[in-house]
Design a protein that fits this description.
Elements: E1 5-12, H1 16-28, E2 34-37, E3 60-64, H2 65-73, H3 77-80, E4 84-87, E5 89-94, E6 100-104, E7 114-118, H4 119-130, E8 136-139, E9 142-150, E10 153-160, E11 165-175, H5 182-186, E12 201-205
Parallel strand pairs: 1-2, 1-11, 2-8
Antiparallel strand pairs: 3-7, 4-7, 5-6, 5-12, 9-10, 10-11
Helix pairs in contact: 1-4
């Protein structure tokens, strides 16, 4: 690998959250140097190439109307909507209770309450959109290691799947690698869980 690289924003793991954030940031400021690092492989041409990333498997994701509006702002919804099912009604029930609550798009004065989108299609559309931004760099088959906070941001090592190592710096480090993040533990980032003694609701959407 080459000499030390400098970034403004580094996002770890290019799943649905990581890639969406990269696009939002790139639209916010076109001169930010943004990099997305993932152990998975990003295809060079996402049109007909499967994206082998756990977030974009054969499952589907339900997104809210607020998320739909965000993707509309990014000019992506016209593509995402090609493989979506609208959520027009949500029924909320609680186990062992007879009461329920119905929420409809008509009552909320919205075209729909949200949508269900295929995860694989999500990944394809996100990658197509990212390729339109020259300030977003995708680095696949690599791991971020040895993270260290500095006065100017973070210093880290970028290790490829073949063992090459490169030292990098970034002003902002975003960990989008899930709740049990090893990098968060290495950086001393902790979280607390509180039991509110609440039972989960069971939403049903149509």
């Amino acid at each position: 690998m080459n000499a030390q690289q400098e970034f403004d924003i580094c996002i770890v793991v290019g799943g649905m959250a990581g890639l969406s954030l990269a696009l939002l940031l790139a639209n916010q400021q076109c001169d930010w140097r943004i990099v997305v690092i993932d152990e998975a492989t990003f295809p060079s041409s996402p049109n007909n190439t499967p994206l082998h990333q756990p977030s974009f498997d054969a499952r589907c994701s339900a997104i809210s109307w607020g998320s739909v509006e965000i993707f509309q702002t990014l000019n992506m919804w016209h593509c995402l909507s090609q493989h979506h099912t609208p959520i027009n009604t949500v029924n909320m029930t609680e186990a062992k209770r007879f009461s329920s609550v119905n929420i409809t798009a008509t009552e909320q004065h919205k075209p729909m309450l949200g949508a269900v989108v295929e995860n694989a299609w999500f990944g394809t559309v996100l990658l197509q959109a990212i390729q339109q931004h020259s300030n977003i760099q995708l680095i696949s088959q690599s791991q971020l290691t040895q993270p260290k906070a500095t006065a100017a941001g973070f210093h880290f090592a970028l290790q490829s799947s073949v063992g090459d190592e490169q030292h990098c710096t970034t002003k902002l480090l975003v960990l989008a690698d899930g709740e049990q993040s090893n990098l968060a533990q290495q950086l001393g980032i902790d979280y607390a869980c509180h039991n509110y003694q609440q039972h989960p609701a069971h939403p049903h959407h149509t």
